[in-house]
Structures
1.
Amino acid sequence: MTSPLALDEDHHVHSSFSDDAVSTVAQNVAAARRRGLRIVVLADHVRQDTAWLPEFQAAVDALRPVPGLEIRAGVEAKILDQSGALDLPPGAASAERVLIADHQFPGERGPVHPRQMRDALEAGEVSADEVISGLVQATAAALTMAARPQLAHLFSLLPKMGLAEADVPDQAIAHLARQARLAGARVEVNEKWACPSARTARVFADAGVPLVASTDSHDCADVGVYASVRQLADAAFGAAQPGG
């Protein structure tokens, strides 16, 4: 099976607009050009009170156009609760790409730190099935909260809570894949977190959901550089497409 992943693209790149990244948008674009990428998605972390979006958009617009490189501007927001609400500031839902992230567990009353969820699991206050079902339900709901959604590092939260992606039932993955297809979403295969698994990637691909490669880079030195994504693509589909 031919891999649907193009490694001459990077669909999740952070800049210094994110408080945990070090490179500017210009440095990221320069790195993408050096590595011969065709597409780069510049997406920084936002919250409901984020005020710098106009500056970010202006910084990205100032770099366009670049011959041979498509530059897209996006935002990354965490899922807040079981309704799928996203931690987005006004106007961000219409960004060129909205990356939906499972940074914390989306509880009934709001986000719960993964350490707290791990403690609750160990104490028997909640079961693994309940946690996984809640995460899948909230993620599916979040897909409807913004145009041009992209699932970022899907299931990266599970190990932080003491669970594993292998614990997710096949039917839950299939349900999420169907919802992603209906929402017109992309699902990234993430270098930093080495997720989702080959099993999950195949289910999404079989459902007709576009898979995209991403580094989740916080330093321009990492833009377009793939190792775990290559391995996952090989395991899921055979050799990945050239690039990266």
Note: The longest strand covers residues 70-78.
2.
Amino acid sequence: MEIGIVGLPYAGKTTIFSTLLKHKSMDQAGARQAAERGVVKVPDERLNKLTTMFNPKKQVNTTIEYVKVAGLEEDGGQSQGLTSKFLNNLKNVDALMVVIRDFENEFYPHPMNRVDPPADIEYINGEFLISDLIVVEKRVEKLDKMVMKTQNEQDKRELAVMHRLKEQLDMEKPLRELNFSENESNILRTYQFITLKPIVYVINIAENKIAESAQIEAELSRFKTPQCSIITLSAEIEKEISELSEEDSTIFMEDLGIKEPALSKLIRASYELLGLISFFTVGDDECRSWTIRKGNNAQKAAGVIHSDLEKGFIRAETASYDDLMANGSLAACKDKGVLRLEGKEYLVKDGDILNIRFNV
């Protein structure tokens, strides 16, 4: 799973990316168009408690890969267009993290000499819409000629989809707001439209605005459409928190009225934005969280662990995380009847503890 980090210059992309990975990002001039990558553990307090309960040799969190992409530049309010390198770097990401500036800094001026989050969101979305529209218009032009010559049915179906996309984009609406049939989705898999990708807007605020986070998010709620979410944070404060010891960071956050690092919430928001859930496997060797899409069944979940488990699936022994915590052990769950045997069509729920029975 990959999340692309983008935003206008001096919005805080590098600070957020470096803090997520807890290392310094590249700063060479030649790296401005490069994409930097890093894998981040998804924080999950449930897994921490399971590790405490089972005391395994290791704990394994599920992960997200973040890709920081330069190239979304702007000059004096004039669109520069999205470069092919920028688009290629975003080609395979599953979702976008768009960093929006909401702080003053005279040493790093905003490229349009303003601090206006709604205007920045609208500008960036406009760039994404134009990029997708160019692709659609070129494809419509090509398909029109092909259909006139060959009358190929598959080309006709694709052309109908492209006309539908063009109509949506002409109304300046993102493609993620459309619903697609299975056949339409199959056609779209050959493309990587930016406005189809889910988005989390990260509003990078000044330290003195932390107490206003809820109000700021409410003021931007019109941008919180399907498959879009909003989270506020102060990138500089998050950086400071990450550099402190656990004890000092707790005291620091208490002084600021912060319950947990916002970046932990951001990582979870990225995870949830893609419609993903976690299930757990536990034991003496390891306690591990695994990622599946919401609505996947037990046999699919078994395949995430290992393909042999999916092929030879017999039953899934399962209990919910809440039931396990309430009863204190899997043995107690069994005695209470909340440790169950489920078949391959059982829909796995977020927080399920699974033990797969299989035969290969």
Note: The first helix runs from residue 13 to 21.
